[in-house]
Amino acid sequence: MDNIYFITILVAFIAAPLARAENEVGGSIFYFGNKTATLSCNITSGGSTPVTWYFQNTSLKETGDRYTMTGTPSTPVLEIKKPTRDDAGQYTANFGTTANCTVNYTAAPLVLDMVKSMSVEKDDDLDIVCDIRGYPPAEVVWQRNGVNLTESALIQLRDYNGHINAQLYIEDVQYSDEGTYTCIAYSHLFNSSSTKSLVVRVKNPIAWVWPLIGIIVEIVLLGIVIFICAKLDKRRAIRADFNDTNQSVGQGHGGARKHGGDKHD
Ligand SMILES: *[C@@H]1O[C@H](CO)[C@@H](O)[C@H](O)[C@H]1NC(C)=O
Ligand SMILES: *[C@@H]1O[C@H](CO)[C@@H](O)[C@H](O)[C@H]1NC(C)=O
Ligand SMILES: *[C@@H]1O[C@H](CO)[C@@H](O)[C@H](O)[C@H]1NC(C)=O
Ligand SMILES: *[C@@H]1O[C@H](CO)[C@@H](O)[C@H](O)[C@H]1NC(C)=O
Ligand SMILES: *[C@@H]1O[C@H](CO)[C@@H](O)[C@H](O)[C@H]1NC(C)=O
Ligand SMILES: *[C@@H]1O[C@H](CO)[C@@H](O)[C@H](O)[C@H]1NC(C)=O
Ligand SMILES: *[C@@H]1O[C@H](CO)[C@@H](O)[C@H](O)[C@H]1NC(C)=O
After folding, report:
1. What is the model's pTM?
2. 112 C-alpha to center of ligand 5: Å?
3. Closest approach atom of ligand 3 to CA 89
4. 3-class DSSP state of 119
5. What does R_g of the chain's alpha carbons equal in angstroms?
6. Which residue among 54, 55, 56, 57 has the greatest number of ligand 3 atoms within 8 angstroms of its CB, and so is best to mutate?
7. What is the 3-state secondary structure (H, E, C) of 168-237?
C-alpha cells in the first residue's frame, strides 16, 4: 500500500517538470544584411517528441532552404536563411502536448515608403496608414507640420498590423488639416525610431464647377458675338443694298457737285 502511494508521488514529481513553461535561450536580433538568423529554445526536461516550429500561427516546413531545423530534442534550433524584417516576430516551438516555448526574433522599426503627397476633398475623410516592419510592435506618434496630433472627436488613432496608433483617421477634413503629416514609429526595446512624411492637400469639392461655368460663359459669349455679327452683316447687307439703289441717284449729284467744284477752281 505504502509503495503504491510512494510511486504515485514519484510519478507526479517527475511528470510535473514536463508541463513547466520553458525558456528562451536567446532571442535573435535582425540586422539588415544578415545571411541567417538562429533561434533556439531550451526545454528543461522531456523533449522526446519532435518539435514543430510556429510563426504567426503557421507551422514552418523544412521545404526549400528557407528554414532549417537542428539542435537537440531539449534545445531545438531554427535557422532562417536570408531573413528580412518581415521575418521578425514571435516564434513558438511546440513539443506536442508537453510544452511550448517562444523565441522573439526582434527587429528595429522601419516605416515603409509612403506616397509623397495626396489630395482629399473638403468634408471627406482622411485615412493614412503608417506601414511598419519590426518587432516588438512600434508605437506611433503622428505630427502635422511638426506638431504632435492627439486623439480627439475628429482625429482617431488606430492600431495597424499590431503597431500602436499606426493608422490616422480624420473625419470631415477642413482646409486647416492641410499640411505635412509625419509618422514617427518608436521602439522602446531598440530606443530607435523610423520616420516618413507625406503632404496632404485639401481640395474644394465643387472645384470642377468653375471650369464648367467658364465653358458655359464662353459659349454664351460666343453665341452673342455670332448673333451680333450676324445682325451687323444683315445691316451691312441692307445698307449695301440701300447704297446700291442710291448710287445711281448719288452719282448724278456728285457729278453735279464736281462740276460745281470745277467751277470754283
Ligand atoms: C547579423 O548582423 C549583425 C551586424 O552586422 C552581426 O553582429 C550579427 O552577428 C549577424 N547575425 C547573424 C546571425 O549573422
Ligand atoms: C537550458 O536552460 C537551463 C536553465 O536556464 C540551463 O541551465 C541550461 O544550460 C540550458 N541549456 C542549454 C543547452 O542552453
Ligand atoms: C494567431 O491566432 C490567435 C488565436 O486564434 C489570434 O488571436 C492571432 O491574431 C493569430 N495571429 C496571427 C499573426 O495570425
Ligand atoms: C502550445 O500552444 C498550442 C497552440 O497555441 C496550444 O494549443 C497548446 O495547448 C500549448 N501547449 C502547452 C503545453 O502549453
Ligand atoms: C517576446 O515578445 C513579447 C511581446 O512583445 C513579450 O511579451 C515577451 O516578454 C518577449 N519575450 C522575451 C523573452 O523577451
Ligand atoms: C510629442 O510626442 C512625443 C511622444 O509622446 C513626446 O516625446 C514629445 O515630447 C511630444 N512633443 C511635443 C512637442 O509635445
Ligand atoms: C535613447 O537614445 C537617445 C539618443 O538617441 C539617448 O539620448 C537616450 O538616453 C536613450 N535612452 C535610453 C533609455 O537608452
Report:
1. 0.72
2. 24
3. 13
4. strand
5. 42
6. 57
7. EEECCCCHHHCEEEEEEEEECCCCEEEEEEEEEEEECCCCCHHHHHHHHHHHHHHHHHHHHHHHHHHHHH
Answer for the pair 49, 96: CB distance below 8 angstroms, yes or no. Answer: yes
Q: Which residue has the cell 470745277?
A: 262
Owner of C-alpha cell 510511486: 7
Atom 10 (ligand 6) nearest CA:
148
C-alpha cell at 11: 510519478
All cell numbers assigned to 227: 448673333
Cα 23 to chain centroid, rounded: 38
What is the residue-level pLDDT of the chain in tens, covering all 265 positions?
Answer: 444 444 333 333 333 334 344 555 556 899 998 899 999 887 776 656 678 899 998 999 887 789 999 888 778 899 999 999 999 999 998 887 777 888 999 999 999 999 999 999 999 999 999 999 999 999 999 999 999 999 999 999 999 999 999 999 999 999 999 999 999 999 999 999 999 999 999 998 776 777 788 888 888 888 888 888 788 877 776 666 656 555 554 444 444 444 444 444 5
Rounded-to-integer distance, Cα 39 and Cα 77, Å: 6
Residue with cell string 516551438: 93
- As a whole number of angstroms, the distance between CA 198 and CA 171 comes to 18
